[in-house]
Amino acid sequence: MKKFEEKTIKTKNIYDGKVIKLQVDDVTLPNGKTSKRELIKHPGAVAIIAITKDNKIVFVEQYRKPLEKSIVEIPAGKLEKGESPEVTAVRELEEETGYTTRNLEFVTSFYTSPGFADEHMYIYKTSQLEQLENPLEGDDDEFVEILELTLDQAKQYVEEQRIHDAKTNYAVLYLEMLGRK
Amino acid sequence: MKKFEEKTIKTKNIYDGKVIKLQVDDVTLPNGKTSKRELIKHPGAVAIIAITKDNKIVFVEQYRKPLEKSIVEIPAGKLEKGESPEVTAVRELEEETGYTTRNLEFVTSFYTSPGFADEHMYIYKTSQLEQLENPLEGDDDEFVEILELTLDQAKQYVEEQRIHDAKTNYAVLYLEMLGRK
C-alpha cells in the first residue's frame, strides 16, 4: 500500500555503523509541502519461543546498553546478510542457549518501530529442543545468562518489568493465549 | 538489574534530530575487553487500543517512510517533553481519530528495540469513547486515515501484513486473548 506516499527528494547518509545506518530524507508530503524523515536502517532480526520438554520457556538475560540495565528476553539475533530467518533462528538458539531444533513454527512478524526504523522481527516457536553436545561460542561481545521459566513465572517477570521488550511481551501473551485454546 | 553491565568509556554524539538522537559509546565488557555500542535515543511513545460502542477497534492507516509503505496501526504518538503518558494518549487519540476518552486502562509497556534504541512504548485501552465536537488538527506533516474494524477483520489484516508492527500485533493478540477469558 502506498497511501499518503512521501516521495524522496534527497537522501543524506549520516552514519554507517556495525548494526545500524542513519539517513535523513527530504520528502514531499501528500499536500505538496516538504518535511524531513530520520530513518534507521537495520538488517532485521529473529526471535525464538523455545519450550523445553518439561514445558518451560527458555529466556536469556543480557545487558542492554540503550536501557543501561539487563532485561530477560527470548533468544534473538540479527539477520546476517543473505541469511534466511529460519537459519538465523537456529543459529541464535544454538549460540545463546546451547539448544538446537529441527522444527520451527512461524508465529508472526512485525516492524518494531515503524516510525523511525525498518527493523523487521520474525518470531518462531519450537517445542522440540535438543541439547547440543558441543555448544557453540556466541559473539565475543555478547554475555548472556540462560533462564528457564514456567509461563506463570514469565507473567510475573512481565509484571515486574524484568521482561520488558516488544518481542518477549508478545511471546508471553502468545503462550498465555495458546493455553486458553 | 545491572548484570553483565557495560561501563561507558566515551560517548560520541553523532546526530541530534527532530525525533531521534544517535550516539556511539565505547564500553568496557564484563570480560574487560572493549566494544562499541550504537544507541538511538527516543522520547518514548504511547499507543491506544480504542474500542467503539459497537465493539470495533479504531485504527489509523499512515505512510511509514522507513518501510516505504503504509500500514494500519493503533493510534500512537511520541511523548512530548515532560508530558505524562496518559496525557499523550488522550492527545494522540483526539488528534488522530476525533475521539476522546475520560477512561484509560493501562495494558502494558515495553521497549520496542532494546538492542539499539531506548524507545519505551506504553499501551492503554479504552472502551469509553466520545466523539469530539470540534476535532483537533494533528501534526501538519501527518496524514492518517481512520479505520474501524472488528477483531476478526483485524486478525485478517495481521494475516495480510496490512497490520504489521509490534504495538498493533500485540494489541490484536491482547484483544483475542480477552475474548477467551
TrEMBL record, chains A, B:
<feature type="domain" description="Nudix hydrolase">
    <location>
        <begin position="40"/>
        <end position="176"/>
    </location>
</feature>
<dbReference type="InterPro" id="IPR020084">
    <property type="entry name" value="NUDIX_hydrolase_CS"/>
</dbReference>
<comment type="similarity">
    <text>Belongs to the Nudix hydrolase family.</text>
</comment>
<dbReference type="GO" id="GO:0016787">
    <property type="term" value="F:hydrolase activity"/>
</dbReference>
<dbReference type="InterPro" id="IPR020476">
    <property type="entry name" value="Nudix_hydrolase"/>
</dbReference>
<dbReference type="Pfam" id="PF00293">
    <property type="entry name" value="NUDIX"/>
</dbReference>
<dbReference type="InterPro" id="IPR000086">
    <property type="entry name" value="NUDIX_hydrolase_dom"/>
</dbReference>
<protein>
    <submittedName>
        <fullName>NUDIX hydrolase</fullName>
        <ecNumber>3.6.-.-</ecNumber>
    </submittedName>
</protein>
<keyword id="KW-0378">Hydrolase</keyword>
<dbReference type="InterPro" id="IPR015797">
    <property type="entry name" value="NUDIX_hydrolase-like_dom_sf"/>
</dbReference>
